């Protein structure tokens, strides 16, 4: 009897799940509202105070803060060049990630990790404004406001213990306000020796993560945990006064110092 009761229980469970999915599908399809109206389009002057408050986070910084300048020309440049920048950035990312992955996977008994698909999508980042600081030092300090609502397709294939799993990153959103410092300014192309990058506040990073087609971010509690971990890790590395240092000119080849000395000696 125990065997038959187990079989019947499994059958009942399977039938219940199937019926629940079918009923849920029909309820989702046929109970959608039919009286959907087009949104009303109004000018800013016609908006009520509550609507204006909801719109404030979306207003560019150059509107709210006179210290920030419009940089529409950069956005136009990115829009035109993005198909080429996408391929170049993805190629560079593959080259950088490959040796790091090969170094790390033996520690976790993983056979291989490969990018099956890597594209940043068709939507380029946009700059909502940029602030430039004037100093007496040989440096250029910029603070752009970056917003990027992207549609990337990053598909990672992981093989271990004879099994294969795919992890996919989709629907990426990044809001950040970095401080970019070019220093020292030198009379040798590209006219600055090092790039320093810091984040002035914790960035907002949001994305979808799928494992084998299943949305992992729909797991209760996981979404908020991942968001907080990303913010904390990025803040620990790059939140001001910590910086990301990107050398441009080789310090060993101090050609700009030689040029400066020659200019000083020239009457």
TrEMBL record:
<keyword id="KW-0812">Transmembrane</keyword>
<dbReference type="GO" id="GO:0005783">
    <property type="term" value="C:endoplasmic reticulum"/>
</dbReference>
<keyword id="KW-0479">Metal-binding</keyword>
<keyword id="KW-0445">Lipid transport</keyword>
<comment type="similarity">
    <text>Belongs to the synaptotagmin family.</text>
</comment>
<keyword id="KW-0677">Repeat</keyword>
<keyword id="KW-0813">Transport</keyword>
<dbReference type="InterPro" id="IPR039010">
    <property type="entry name" value="Synaptotagmin_SMP"/>
</dbReference>
<dbReference type="GO" id="GO:0008289">
    <property type="term" value="F:lipid binding"/>
</dbReference>
<dbReference type="GO" id="GO:0016020">
    <property type="term" value="C:membrane"/>
</dbReference>
<keyword id="KW-1133">Transmembrane helix</keyword>
<feature type="domain" description="SMP-LTD">
    <location>
        <begin position="67"/>
        <end position="249"/>
    </location>
</feature>
<feature type="transmembrane region" description="Helical">
    <location>
        <begin position="7"/>
        <end position="31"/>
    </location>
</feature>
<dbReference type="InterPro" id="IPR045050">
    <property type="entry name" value="Synaptotagmin_plant"/>
</dbReference>
<keyword id="KW-0472">Membrane</keyword>
<dbReference type="InterPro" id="IPR031468">
    <property type="entry name" value="SMP_LBD"/>
</dbReference>
<keyword id="KW-0446">Lipid-binding</keyword>
<dbReference type="Pfam" id="PF17047">
    <property type="entry name" value="SMP_LBD"/>
</dbReference>
<dbReference type="GO" id="GO:0046872">
    <property type="term" value="F:metal ion binding"/>
</dbReference>
<protein>
    <recommendedName>
        <fullName>SMP-LTD domain-containing protein</fullName>
    </recommendedName>
</protein>
<dbReference type="GO" id="GO:0006869">
    <property type="term" value="P:lipid transport"/>
</dbReference>
<keyword id="KW-0106">Calcium</keyword>
